[in-house]
Each structure stands twice: as structure tokens, then as C-alpha cells.
Design a protein that fits this description.
The chain is mainly alpha-helical. Helix content is about 55%, strand content about 5%. A hairpin with a 3-residue loop joins β1 (about 50) and β2.
Length: about 140
Amino acid sequence: MNLLASLRYLVSLQEHRHFGRAAQACHITQPALSNALRALEEEFGAVIVKRGRTFAGFTPEGDRVLASARVMLRERELLQQELDSQSGRPQARSRSARCPRRCRWRRASRPRCSAAPGPAARGAVHELARDRGGAG
């Protein structure tokens, strides 16, 4: 039994309040969801879900398991994000800006600029060029 998957199924059942819709949201069949929840009940040695012809709610033990399931799934998500950020994988799509044209004041030995400078920076570049004897 995959504990995290079973806990996801339990949370889905709580959100949808219907075995079939919860199974559909988890991309599994309804019997697979029911079997996973029964295995979870066997694991904990307690009835978690009140069953009847339809979903009837959770037992008090089920409410405790559900609360822990939400915490565990959130912690797993945070851990995954932390590991992803440490491994250098980007967390979201990002776009990098590119200078649309070559900067006129750039010398051949200097790298390309990443963005067009503001007026203050342009003035400083011209002053630096004048001080070095270059054209400004």
C-alpha cells in the first residue's frame, strides 16, 4: 500500500463527498479507491469511513486520520519544493530579458548588456569614456 496515495484518496473523498467523484478526481476507479481506503483502515486498525449505500461521512477516528493526512501531504509538498530548489531546478517558468539590439557604447572586449541602461547610467558611461580619452 502506498500510504501517501491512500491519504490523497481520503482527502479527495472528503472534498467530493462521493466515492465515484473522488476516484475520478484521483484518476483511478471507484473499486481501487475503496480498496485503498480499506487497506488504510486495516493499517490503522480502525474504521475511517462510514459506509452505507452512499458515502455517509467519517468516523471520529477518520476525522483524526484526515487531519493528519492533510498535514502529511502539505509537508510532502513543501519538502519536494525545497529539494527542487536546492537541486537548481526552476520552480516556475521565467523569462529572461534580452537586449533587443547591440548597445552602441559597448566595446568589443566587453560583454553584451542584459538590458538598456537608464539615463543616469548612460551619463556615467559617457563620462567614463571621456575620462579614458574615448568618444562619449
